[in-house]
């Protein structure tokens, strides 16, 4: 035997075993990653498509006779007091019984069907909302929205006003009260946030001190794109300086906004296609049942259209829960 060959073979075996174990560790870590549904705005759309429908009869916001203008989401998030087939003790808290039921739906569903409970939240009042109220919607759309400000207000990638910050704090008090053991609303298993400054602020003020808050910043849940400077995103590096503790930005989100166009504003059909792409990716890749999305009025309206929900306009800082059934299309 050539001297050293036996030792070299032994070392090679150890190296191969180490690499193999490392690959296994990488596989299971990536497989169990919190943000398994992350995908890029400019990447190829998910190949898996879904048919969406709202599971009705659980929230007052689903009902045709509920008035969005007067509805107060802080009254138990609109959950209807009712019984469930999975009830074992009718005296258990309502949210606890509801959560048991939706997890039963998810676990008992056929392999091509999945269920998710989405908490859709609109950002608090921004400087652009104040400007639109100041000038009126017609003049805002025709002229002022195309500028960055008026000398008094600045609304490019609009920030929250003091009112908007307080609306987000109201949402924070609400969710913490709802998540208490005596109420039992389920904690989100994933948080997704638009990269617009007002949404980043809202998500931070609403959820930052809630256990497990690890948001993913995603382009696909942005507001209607184009023309309005309030919807032109600022530099990635700027918001990453502020929103960085536990925050994750999706891979591929560019430094400058490459999506906004000064001469074209997304149509309903275009934003619905974008939101549909985001939802397809979410349902294809995220195993969690409860997902929080902090977004915008136009983007949330698009979510509701794509999901088959009735129109339900949210005031600034408002939230709406939607229980969704998704059937994978072959």
Automatic annotation (TrEMBL):
The chain crosses the membrane at residues 12-28. Keywords: Membrane, Transmembrane, Transmembrane helix. Coiled coil: none annotated. The keyword Membrane applies. InterPro entries: His_Pase_superF_clade-1, His_PPase_superfam, PGM_Phosphatase. The keyword Transmembrane helix applies. GO terms for cellular component: cytoplasm. PROSITE patterns: PROKAR_LIPOPROTEIN. GO terms for molecular function: phosphatase activity. PANTHER family: BROAD-SPECIFICITY PHOSPHATASE YOR283W-RELATED, HISTIDINE PHOSPHATASE FAMILY PROTEIN-RELATED. This is Phosphoglycerate mutase.
